[in-house]
Amino acid sequence: MKTTTVLLTLFFAATAFADAIEEVRQAEIGFAKAFADRDKTKFFSYVADDAVFMGAMNTLRGKQQVIDRWSRFFDNVPVAPFSWGPERVEVTADGKIGFSMGPIYDAQLNHGGYYSSVWQKQADGTWKILIDGPGNPPAPLPETTAKFEEGYVTTPDGVKLYYRKLGARSPVTIIAPLDFVMHEPLQQFADVATVITYDLRNRAKSSRTTDVKTLTIDRDVDDLETIRAHFKVDKFVPVGFSYLGKVVAMYAVRHPEHVTRVIQLGPAANRMADFKREPDKEFGAAAEDVKKWQEMRAAGAMQKEPRAFCEAQGKVMNFYLVGNPARASSDVSFCALENEWPVNFAATFETLWPSIEKSSLSADELKKITMPVLAIHGDKDRNAAYEGGKAWVAELPDARLVTVPGAAHVAWRDDPVAVFAAIRHFLRGEWPLGSE
Q1: Nearest to 412 by CA among 381, 372, 387
Q2: Residues 9-28: tens digit of each pLDDT
Q3: CATH architecture of residue range(s) 148-278+347-427
Q4: Average pLDDT, stretch 383-408?
Q5: Among 241, 194, 208, 201, which Cα is nearest to 223's?
Q6: Does domain 2-134 have CATH number 3.30.980.10?
Q7: Rounded to 5 degrees, what are φ and ψ at 82?
Q8: For labelling, which of 9, 17, 153, 223 has a CA lying 20 to 30 Å from the CA of 401?
């Protein structure tokens, strides 16, 4: 008798569980059908009052915001611009929360990715969508792959700046100097933004200038404007790493009409004299690599064997740029670029560095940077003082800081999740979680 009771209990529990899954599946199907049928009233009846809809570039909170935003897909739109349906459905054991996910297709039946949504059972037994958000991206087919181009932009004084541009379908544009460092980490945002990276004059693949007087931080600001104007970008988000964090702030002062938001990664301090620090003599690299580099330097290899010396120095300095030695990059491919050989790099910075140290924005100039500014800084940065990053945030009208604990100058190598999640959230128009 007890065995029969247990079996019946399991049978009814399994049946109820299957019923709940089917209820959620049918709710998702009805939700999608209302959209296809252009039944606006029925469509929004599936949305909970406290629903949250997360898009690639925005978050809608509450039913009214969903109505305000999604009505554009109905008003004067006779044919649904896309369609979807459940592929997988699950529910919690108590049958009160359901999850649905499946493919999305555009009006031409091209696969556009996946949706994911959380449903909640109401007191009257109906299901309403509580959280809606994007799922996996579409398959990487040629027609869905972000467009790529590369080339050179010539400055007014004849210097050729190498650039790479990725993506062309978003109203958001990122422009970041120092292509050979920034292109790889920033290309992941091509799904939500057009990403333009370029090399500075005398750096990487850009041409060298015969007039060393042009190697100043002010000219770097001018070159950023040259890049923007070349691509006819009206509004964009400048991203500045290291001393270029100061460059993008200077640009925002001079051209605020073109800047929507600013991102600083491990930025040099505005007033560098305020944050003097002794260089860290502990590189974190293997002792034999440090020894080889130092011996080559003493033997004059920087001039005699410039590429080999670059590779030896790179093996050491890649450790200096991270807080966790296990996160150090082994890549020294930049040594294929003559402009990045230490002998040439040193000559460039010998002229450039004094202008970086001396330049600073006044209190009045800082007040002109009214757009949101996000500074992301590792608290173990050996190159640009973490305190300098904090000072930017403290003095700007609308700025926040994301601290990456234990990270050094290239904070995204120490903690890519913290850095890139913060950037992506900021590009959506919101402050990242954990920012202060």
Answers
A1: 381
A2: 444 444 555 789 999 999 99
A3: 3-Layer(aba) Sandwich (3.40)
A4: 97
A5: 201
A6: no
A7: -160, 170
A8: 223
